[in-house]
Amino acid sequence: GVLAAPTAYPLVPRRIDGEWQVEKAPAGGDTTNSDTAYYVVDLTVPQDLSLAASGVAVEAMERGDGTVTQRFVTGPMRDFAFALGPFESSEAIVDGVIVRAWVLPEHEPDADDMLDAAARQLTILNDLFGQYPYIELDVVDAPGAFGGIEYPGIVFIGTLGTTWLVEPTVHEVAHQWFYGLIGDDQLHEPWLDEALASYAEVLYYEETGQRGAAAGLLSQFRNWLRSYPDPTLPIGRGVGDYPGPDAYGAFVYGKGALFLDALRGEIGEEAFGEFLRAYFDQERYGFATADEFQQTAESACACDLDELFDLWVWHGGEIPGL
To answer: What does the alpha-carbon distance between residue 97 and residue 76 come to, in Å, rounded to a whole number?
Structure first.
């Protein structure tokens, strides 16, 4: 999720690369991990409410008692999620994908902005990283979802009715690539999805011609980091290895995005683009590690990045300009 959406989960065994992960989750962060799987899910719901879910609805059967059973099937996904409510929907088709916005009646004025941001980000990330492989993407108005919460094929946005809508939307859409498609251990190496989703906000502004907004967002990340007593901490720690949720956010999200900008500056635009596409091609549907991330970046630039990764990811230290 975005920074405003740290989510603590109870002790629930999940599978990562075939192994159960049973340690108790710390406070803050997204701390569950799942291997990809195919889902077939039947949901029986009131007929007068709208249902949005991961995957695609393939059939519906009225029960005769005011309810309907809908069957959803998915491609390879890590989780299945759904939202039920008095939603109004609108949609756009982007690169063959149906992007659908679901909003509550009181937030109808925000529907077009949310749909537009999601559709644009889908186009941008298809081009920069690789193709979104599913038929649909649902973006759902979900008050109480903090800034936002991501699930495969569906994301919840908790900021409709406020001025902070575009960044949570494009951040959560980016999670379709980072954690959704390119998995990572969200408990121990959370920067691998949160830093990339945060930097995808910067890329969104750049690719839509809003370079001032992109620079402004990077400045916000720098100011956020400077407000923390010790900005030298590395980004590569686990959720529970920071002093608290505020520090976790500042380093994993804010400093993580700044690291990606530094990596881009270090290896150059061409190699950075090659890296993004190679990383997606190699890691989708599996679990990436920080070591593999570094190796892929080094292959793209044909250079040694130990010093850069030691400074930002592994050990930390004083960074000029921060």
So the answer is: 16
